Amino acid sequence: MDQFERDGLIFDVWDLGPPAGQAVILLHGYPQTKAAWSDVAPALAEAGYHVLVPDQRGYSPGARPRGRRQYTIERLVEDVLALADAAGATRFHVVGHDWGGAVAWGCAMWHPDRVRTVTSLTVPHPRAFLRALLTSRQFFQSWYALFFLLPVLPEATARFGPARRWFERTLVRTGLPEKNLAEYRAAMDQPGATTAAINWYRAGPLTPPTRYRSVSVPTLYVYATGDIALGRRAADLTARYVTGPYTYEVLEAVGHWIPEAAPAAVVDLLLAHLQQA
């Protein structure tokens, strides 16, 4: 399978490993593509897992609906379920980084009957994040998310002139390997791609905080001490919102871009965690 369809939208996907293996779905964040998992997915497939890696809504050229309401967490979670259904996976492991981590949390919160285990890299449980906004420096670290709520200006910053160069330097400065930058920039330069990706941020406030609940499935949360966007307070609070088996790992001297910058560590942690179900 290299594509799947949901409600007329066509999603590009990598399909690796034996179809009879337990399904593992890897979800990228902003402004990544499925290439974020290039050094992780093959190792999981070699270990016997059926690995599915989509370009998510807004990132697949055939799945860029207009309007921020098309990019709520609820819709993004439904896309993951549609991928699992297309692959014949009644239950699956879900792993997310950055915004993909938020989607992974949503899968585990709202569909524990489908999720074997959940793993989030960098992004804490949403209730832990909201609490940290009020009790730590997290509000100031999240300034860019407020900026992305504005119309037009975020797209211009990400795509044109000196602002684009500053944006690219920021990605590298926060730990993104240079080799990944060109591919991600090319993807964001496709028609409609930047607006679609930023609409994930604009749709965030549309999900009421009351919808966020504790997670009961086996959970792995990985925090990187070099992450300038997400503070330690929310990471430490995440344990309060997991009622099932919980593993909290901290990667020292690693920045925000964990799948690209520390793939070997990610593979080791995942292979240990996925065995729990």
What is the C-alpha radius of gyration, as a whole number of Å? 17 Å
Given the C-alpha coordinates, what overall shape results?
Answer: globular
Q: Estimate the strand proportion.
A: 15-25%
Low-confidence stretches: none
Mean pLDDT: 95
The H-level CATH homologous superfamily, spelled out, is Alpha/Beta hydrolase fold, catalytic domain
Main β-sheet, spatial strand arrangement? 1-2-4-3-5-6-7-8
CATH class category: Alpha Beta
Count, helices: 13
Distance between the termini: 25 Å
Count structural domains.
Answer: 1
Please state the second-level CATH architecture: 3-Layer(aba) Sandwich
Name the descriptors:
277 residues, alpha/beta, 13 helices, 8 strands
Concise structural overview:
By secondary structure, the chain is of the alpha/beta class. It has helices at residues 41-46, 73-86, 99-110, 126-135, 138-141, 143-147, 153-159, 161-173, 178-188, 193-203, 232-237, 258-261, 263-274, and strands at residues 3-6, 9-16, 23-27, 50-54, 92-97, 115-121, 219-224, 246-251. Helix 2 crosses helix 3 and helix 7 (153-159) crosses helix 8.
